[in-house]
C-alpha cells in the first residue's frame, strides 16, 4: 500500500495546461543574479493565465486575469528544493499533484539538458519562462454565470506575496508562548485551508461568507479560524491585511501576539511587544554572520501565568542559513511526502520550536 499516494484525479470543471521555454529575450540583471561557481544558473518566471472555457466551442476562451511570479534560482545542485515556492502556488490553483510533478520534472529535465550542452562554455544565467493556463470549464447544464462564479482567479487566491520565501522568512515570528504573531506566520502555521469538493459540506460550515456574503461553491477555498467562524480563505486574509486584527464576526483576536497582521503588507504602523521574538529585531553578528536575538526565553522556567520569563543573558544565535533551512526543509519534506497544509504547518512549528530551544541551551 502506498502511504503517500499521488493525487491523479482530474478536477471536474477545471483544466490545466503548461508550456516551458528558454526565454533569452527576457531582461534580467545577470550580474546581480549570478551566484556561486555554477556553470549555469536558471532564473524562473511563472506566468499564469486564468481562463474561462464555455462549453460552446464557437464562443472561444476568455482570459479573466493573469499573474506573474518568480522562484528561487537553481544552480543544478540542490534538487531537493527545486521550485519549492512554485509547487505551493500551483496547489493554490487546485492543480492535481500528478500534473504538478509532471511540470516540475519537465522543467528539471530542461535544466539538465541545458547544463550538459553548455558544460564547456562560460558561466551564464538561463532565463526559463513557465506559462500556465488555469481553465475553468463550463459543464453540461451549468449556466455560464455559475461557471464564472466558481472560476479560479487572482481575486479568490491568497496574495502571491505569501509564496515569496525570502519575504516570508523575514516575517516568521512567534511570541513567548509559541503563538504566531505576524500574518505570514499565521497563514503558514495556524490557518488551515481546504478546497471544497462537496458543496453541502461547505454549506454546513457557512451558509455564506460573512465578509463577501457569497455562498460556498465547488472548488472554493475555506478557512475556519481559532474562534470557530469560517470564511473564504482569501476573504479572511484580505480582512487581516486591511489592518483588522480580529475576527469580523466576533472581534476575537486572530492570533496571540500584539503585532499587527498588516505589517506583512508593508504597513508603517507597528505595535511592539517585548515578549515577542521579532525577526526584524535580529541583528547581524559581524564575527560569524549569524543572526542574534536580543531577547531570549529560557525553556526551563515558566511563570504562574504559563508564559516563560524573559532573560537578557544567553543571547541566542541562529544563523541565517539555519532559518532558511528550517522553513525550506519543512516545506520540502512536506512536498516529498504529499502532506496537506495542516501537516506541513505542524512540521514547520515543530522545527522552529526545536531549533529555538536547542540554540538557547
From TrEMBL:
<dbReference type="InterPro" id="IPR013083">
    <property type="entry name" value="Znf_RING/FYVE/PHD"/>
</dbReference>
<keyword id="KW-0479">Metal-binding</keyword>
<dbReference type="Pfam" id="PF13639">
    <property type="entry name" value="zf-RING_2"/>
</dbReference>
<dbReference type="InterPro" id="IPR001841">
    <property type="entry name" value="Znf_RING"/>
</dbReference>
<keyword id="KW-0862">Zinc</keyword>
<feature type="domain" description="RING-type">
    <location>
        <begin position="209"/>
        <end position="251"/>
    </location>
</feature>
<protein>
    <submittedName>
        <fullName>RING/U-box superfamily protein</fullName>
    </submittedName>
</protein>
<dbReference type="GO" id="GO:0008270">
    <property type="term" value="F:zinc ion binding"/>
</dbReference>
<keyword id="KW-0863">Zinc-finger</keyword>
